[in-house]
């Protein structure tokens, strides 16, 4: 089902998503069912970690490394805004850091992976921006491996390109993002994507929040044998972000 020329249906969706940019895509038909404010630019925030994880996944494949290989956390691991308790010089498995970045959006995990990959967050960020252009994400600029920082921007259509790339080339990353929780230090921490456990057919991807005012999500679900991708950027709250996804899915992918 597509909004198409149904003006009433479109007005209902627009009224239900008054501030954010939004998009719903159906894979089999390669069809955007609905888009709203698709050229408006927002900080990607932690959606950045999707591409960070793709580059790490590629490096593991290139070098034939065991994902459980341990690396030492950087001495300045606590420089980022996070609270997962990774200690400087602590040896943590690459797979654990990837889970932390994918499931609970741990900023220090993303930075540690970037340091391991490229020697510094700055060098890794340059690679992120180079890869974004290769993927056709012409409106996107990343500012760090984690999604923190200034001077970053993206659009819902660029994020759709990234999600499609993850599904096509990095199924391991899609599977990580679908995990319900991250186990660390004897505790279970739920996925930041609350729709995983509440929306029928949900199968993954990632949230991103910046300063509490920018609330993003790239969401995937399978219904009726179809893969759907919903992108919402710039919602004022996490609740309104999730409700926008729910509205898109219930209206166009029942």
Automatic annotation (TrEMBL):
Keywords: Cell shape, Cell wall biogenesis/degradation, Hydrolase, Peptidoglycan synthesis, Signal
GO-annotated biological processes: beta-lactam antibiotic catabolic process; cell wall organization; peptidoglycan biosynthetic process; proteolysis; regulation of cell shape; response to antibiotic
Pfam families: Peptidase_S11
Entry annotation: catalytic residues: 46, 49, 105
Domain of life from the UniProt record: Bacteria
InterPro entries: Beta-lactam/transpept-like (IPR012338), Beta-lactam_class-A (IPR000871), Peptidase_S11 (IPR018044), Peptidase_S11_N (IPR001967)
Stretches assigned to the Peptidase S11 D-alanyl-D-alanine carboxypeptidase A N-terminal domain: 20-237
Binding-site positions, substrate: 206
GO molecular function: beta-lactamase activity; serine-type D-Ala-D-Ala carboxypeptidase activity
Family: Belongs to the peptidase S11 family.
PANTHER family in the cross-refs: BETA-LACTAMASE, BETA-LACTAMASE-TYPE TRANSPEPTIDASE FOLD CONTAINING PROTEIN
Protein name per its UniProtKB record: Serine hydrolase
């Amino acid at each position: 089902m597509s909004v198409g020329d149904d003006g009433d249906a479109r007005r209902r969706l627009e009224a239900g998503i008054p501030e954010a940019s939004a998009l719903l895509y159906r894979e089999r038909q390669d069809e955007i069912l609905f888009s709203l404010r698709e050229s408006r630019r927002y900080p990607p925030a932690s959606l950045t970690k999707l591409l960070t994880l793709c580059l790490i996944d590629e490096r593991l494949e290139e070098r034939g490394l065991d994902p459980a290989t341990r690396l030492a956390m950087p001495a300045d691991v606590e420089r980022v805004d996070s609270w997962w308790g990774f200690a400087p010089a602590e040896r943590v498995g690459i797979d654990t850091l990837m889970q932390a970045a994918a499931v609970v959006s741990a900023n220090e995990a993303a930075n540690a992976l970037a340091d391991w990959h490229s020697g510094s967050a700055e060098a890794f960020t340059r690679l992120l921006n180079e890869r974004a252009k290769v993927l056709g994400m012409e409106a996107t600029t990343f500012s760090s491996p984690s999604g923190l920082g200034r001077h970053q921007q993206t659009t819902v259509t660029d994020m759709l390109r990234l999600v499609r790339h993850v599904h096509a080339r990095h199924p391991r990353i899609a599977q990580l993002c679908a995990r319900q929780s991250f186990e660390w230090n004897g505790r279970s921490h739920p996925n930041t994507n609350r729709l995983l456990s509440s929306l029928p057919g949900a199968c993954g991807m990632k949230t991103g929040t910046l300063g509490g005012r920018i609330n993003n999500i790239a969401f995937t679900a399978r219904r009726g044998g179809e893969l759907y991708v919903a992108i919402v950027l710039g919602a004022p709250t996490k609740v309104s972000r999730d409700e926008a996804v729910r509205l898109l899915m219930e209206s166009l992918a029942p």
